[in-house]
Amino acid sequence: MSSAKFDVVGLGNAIVDVLARADDAFLTQHGIAKDAMSLIEEPRAELLTAHALNPVITSGGSGANTIAGLASFGAAAGYIGKIADDDLGHQFMREMMATGVPFHTRPLTDGPATARSIIFVTDDGHRSMNTFLGASVLFSKDDVDAQMVRDGSILYLEGYLFDKDEAKAAFVHAAEIAKAAGRKVAITLSDSFCVDRHRASFRQLVRGYADIVFANEAELKSLYETDDFEAALGMLHSECAIAAVTRSEKGSVVFGDGAPIAVPAEPVAKVIDTTGAGDQYAAGFLFGIARGLPLATCARLGHIAAAEVISHFGPRPEQSYKALAEKAGIFA
Q1: Does the N terminus or the C terminus of the chain have fewer Cβ atoms within 10 A?
Q2: Measured between alpha carbons, how far is 284 from 262 in angstroms, rounded to an integer?
Q3: Are the beta carbons of 156 and 10 closer than 8 angstroms?
Q4: Percent of the chain residues topping a pLDDT of 70
Q5: What is the pLDDT of residue 167?
Q6: Which residues have C-beta within 8 Å of that of residue 327, sequence separation ≥ 6?
Q7: pTM value?
Q8: Angle between the 62-73 and 87-98 helix axes, to the nearest 10 degrees?
Q9: Chain segment 271-329, per-residue pLDDT in tens
Q10: pLDDT class of 14 with cuts at 50, 70, 90
């Protein structure tokens, strides 16, 4: 196996986030499911954007957030995702490149607009996501940068991208390229909504390709159709080598060769916005894996990143994760 140019290469939905504060009455008025992700069409995206009060518009997308977080730790990372040739697409490309992450996927010139997620954040810090997938899911095998995949020590696949057959085929194609190059494949289940829609395909991906799996408690239970967390964890343990399952304020449970390890969450003075918490946890964990650190340390790096991102508005780091890790006594 040749040496890797990148620690991690991410493949996911290239999305621009429109973040705004709202109260529960606003959510009810507009028929928005609280603390969930709902897929919407472009007209509703335009409507909700128009009703967003003083929005913050920033590049997002779960996998792209993780890649930006990895860059903040000091990792070498690349990204593959589909944008349209429009203003939001250009913003996404600029902001991705500004983090030091190469992003060269050919934009869509004829078709839907760049994807956006209109995210309403309530005073309790919960985020309600309304996502127009637009150009992001018009992703095919032809969009997979095979050389970039081969150049990455770990290929990180984002479950949100999994909504069209062409994107599923691209996932498998990218995973096969990574495996043939002797690289590791990491998969995040992204949302229980995604798991409910694509359970059989996710199970096949986990069993057939995944070296590392990320999930939260709800996604894990959905994957194995059980309300028993320990039973679901055991089933996942039998199907993949390494996994990290987040449990909000309870921290996370991680496993490798041995018994599962429970790792506590980092303290947070005030939760401002939970958008990006799981994405940044994955960034810390993957950074630790790329550096060969013990799993408990990988999880702690994940919690440090998650604690930072939920302490402010927006899904990407405002402070240097590398500096925070050094301050915590983790020198990776």
Answers
A1: N
A2: 16
A3: yes
A4: 99
A5: 86
A6: none
A7: 0.93
A8: 20
A9: 998 889 999 999 999 999 999 999 999 999 999 999 999 999 889 999 999 999 999 99
A10: very high
- Residue 15 identity: I
Residue spans of alpha helices (H) in 40-154? 42-51, 62-73, 87-98, 146-150
User: SS3 helix, strand, coil % of the chain, rounded to 5?
Assistant: 45, 20, 35
Q: Nearest-CA neighbor of 263 among 281, 250, 276?
A: 250
Q: What is the pLDDT of residues 67-117, one digit of tens each?
A: 999 999 999 999 999 999 999 999 999 999 999 999 999 999 999 999 999
Strand segments, DSSP code E, in 168-276 are 184-188, 212-216, 242-246, 252-255, 261-263
Q: Which CATH number applies to 6-14+60-111+134-327?
A: 3.40.1190.20
CB 101 within 8 A of CB 66: no
Q: Where are the domains positioned within the chain?
A: 6-14+60-111+134-327
Q: Number of helices and strands (H, E) in the chain?
A: 12, 13
Alpha carbon distances (Å) from 199 to 41, 175, 303: 23, 18, 27
CA gap 168, 152 in Å, rounded: 20
Integer angstrom CA distances of residue 194 from 197, 231, 248: 5, 21, 19
Q: Which has the closest alpha carbon to 12: 105, 95, 90, 76?
A: 105
Q: What are phi and psi of 246, to 5 degrees?
A: -90, 150
**Cα 190 to Cα 159: distance, rounded to the nearest angstrom:** 5
Structure tokens at 169: 């085929």
CA triple 217-308-101, angle to 5 deg: 95
- Give the chain's mean pLDDT: 94
- Please, what is the Cα angle at 303 between 188 and 33, to 5 degrees? 55
